[in-house]
Give the backbone structure.
Amino acid sequence: MGSLFDRKKIIPRYKGIGYLMVLLGLLIVGKSLYTATVKRDYWMKVANRLKRDSVDVKPVRGNILSCDGQLMASSLPEYKMFMDFQALHDSKTDSLWYEKLDSICEGLHDIFPERSKQAFRDSLEKGHKKMSRNWPIWKRRVSYDTYSEVKSLPIFSMRPFKGGFHTEEFNSRQRPFGSLAERTVGDMFGAKDTARCGLELSFDSILRGKSGIVQRKKVMNKYLSITERAPIDGADIVTTIDVNMQDLAERALIDELKLINGNVGVAIVMEVETGDVKAIVNMSKVGDGQYRETQNHAVSDLLEPGSVFKTASIMVALDDGVVDTTYKVETFGGIMDMHGAKMRDHNWHRGGYGLLSLPQTLEYSSNIGVSRIIDEHYGKNPEKYVEGIYRLGLADDLKIPLVGSSPARIRKPRMDKTGKHWANWSKTALAWMSIGYETQVPPISTLTFYNAIANNGRMMRPRFVKQVVKDGEVLMDFPPEVIRPQICKPKTLKEIQTILYHVVSQGLGKKAGSKSFKVAGKTGTAQISKGAGGYKSGQMNYLLSFAGYFPADAPRYSCIVCIQKSGLPASGGGMSGVVFHHIAEGIMAQDLKRNASDARDSLSILIPDVKNGNMLSADFVLSHLGMNNYNWSGSYADGNPVWGKATNDKKSLQVNKLKQYAQDLVPDVEGMGARDAVFMLESRGLRVKLDGRGKVIAQSLPAGHKIKTGEICSLKLH
C-alpha cells in the first residue's frame, strides 16, 4: 500500500489544488463585492434597460352617456413622442439617421407647421449629442392621427429598440358636445388623469377601472411584455341628461342673460314622474364678458329664494286648516309696519292691492298678504309653521351626487333656558321667512318641491344617473326613488295646483305661459344681501326666479329658472319667466309629431324634386308622402344600396338605377347632392373640390375617366 501511495508527492498536489480553489473563491467574492459597490450604478442602468418590473398599465376610463346613449364624455388615446438616441446608436443606425434627418425635419414641419424645419433639426441634434434616451420630439400630447403621421416618417417607422422612436400613452377625456352640461358631467385634471368635479368625480371609482401590471424583459434584443395582471377598463354611466333639452335650456338662458346683463343664471328641467334631471345649466359671467359654467350653482347656491317660497307658506296654512281659499286679507296701500320694520309690496308706489283673497296673494305675489296670513296664525307658535315647511320636504337632504351640493338651511325656533323667550328668533323672523327670506334654499331643492306638487304630492329624489353598464350588461341600476309619498293633504294639493295655474293664466307669471298648453308656476324676486354691507350697501343685487311645471293639466316636466343680476329693472316673471316659456315651448315642440301628409294644401308641390344618388333617404320621405309607385329595389340590409336617378315630369316620379362604373373609373355624379357625390368620388381615391350649393351640374373629370393617384375632381353645384 505504501508503495502505491507516495505521501510526499500526493499531499502537495492536493494542497496546491486546495489553495487554487480558495484563491478562486476569494477572487469571485472580491469581484462580486466590486460589482455590488463600485460598479453598482452601471449595472443597475443596464438592468433597467433590459427589464422593468411591475409597470402599471392604465385601464380605459368609462364613458358618460346621455339618457339616449349619446357620448357626453369619452376617453381617447393621446401620445407624447420621444426619441431614444442610445438605442439608435446601439443598433448602429446613426449613419441612416444623418442621411434621413432632413426628410424627418421636413416631415415634422409639415405635421407641425408652427415650428420650423431648422428648429426641429436643432432640437434633434441636441438630443443626439446628449445621447438622450427620452428626448421629446414634440412637447405637447398629440392625437392618434397625428401620432400615426409622425410614425410614418423615416427612422420613426422602425421598431423602438432599433429606431429609438417611442411614445407614452395617455387617456384624454373628450366631450363631443363641448361645454354642454360641463359642470354636471365634470372635468379631469389632464396632467394627473384625476377627476376634478361633477359626475366624473362622484363616480370616479366606477369610471376609472383598475390598473394592470406588466413586466417588460429584453430577450434576444427584443422587448417582451409579460402580463401579470390585465387592466380592468372602467364601466360606463348612463345619465338622465337629454342633450336636446340641455342645449335648448342653455341657449334660452344665455340669450336672456345677455339681454339683461345678468351675472349668474341657472335652469333645471326635471321629469315629473321619475325625478330625472333632463337638463341642468349653470352660467356665470366671466372676465371676457362671456357666459361659462364655472360652478354648479343649481345644487350649491344657498340663497334666500324669495317669492317662490310663498307657495310653501300658503300650503302650510291650508294644510293645517287655519285658512281656506275664501280667506281675505287686507294689504292696505302696499306698505305696512310689521313689528317695527317696513313690509312693502312690489306696487306700493302705485297704491298697493288693498283687500285680497288668499289665492290672489300668490297670483299677485303680495308680500304683505302672505306674511300677514302666516304671522297672524303662527306668530305665537312659529315652531308649528317651520315644522309644516319641513313636512313639505323643502329641508330634506336630497343626496345629490355632485360635490359641493348642500341641502336647504331652514332654521327652527329654539326657546332659551327660561322657556319663555325665543333664543334665536326675532319678532320679524316669521313674517320675512314666510316670503322667502331668513332661509337658504338651493334651486334644486325648490324645483324638487314644485315637482312634487306637479306629481300629485309625491316627492321624487332628483336622479342624475340611471345605470352603470359595461359591455352591454347592466352592472348597477338606480331606479326612481320616492322621498315622500305625500307632502300634503289631497285637498291642499288640488287647491295649490289651481292657484299656481292662475298665477300664470291671470297673475304675474303670464310671460311664462304658452298659447299651446297650460303652464303652472310661481314668480320670485328677492333682494340679495351683499356681504357685510347687507341690504344697505348701495346698488342692490336681485335673485329672479320662476318655478313651475307643464302642461298644467297633465304635468310631464317641471322647471326652475334663476337669474342673479345687479340693479333695476328686475322681474322674476318678466325675465326668468321668459326663459321658462322658451324652454317649455321648445321641449313640447320636440315631442310634436305629425304626419307629413298633413302639410298638403292647394299650394303644395305634390311631386317633390329628388336628387340623384343613394335613394334610401328619398325612399323614406317618398313612402311617408304616400308615393311608392316607382321602379325601385335594393337595400343596405342586403349589401346592395342602389344609386338611382330621379325623373320628374310634374305628374309622376320615376326612379331608375344609375350606370355603375368600376372602382378605377370616375362615376357620373351629375344631378347628385354634395354628400352623395363626394362619397362616390372619395371612395375611389379622388380628392374633391366644391363650388356652389345645390345639385352637381358639372364635374371636371368626365364619367368613365381612368383615375390616377392624387387626382382632383372639381364639382360645380347650383
Q: What stands out?
A: The mean pLDDT is 85.
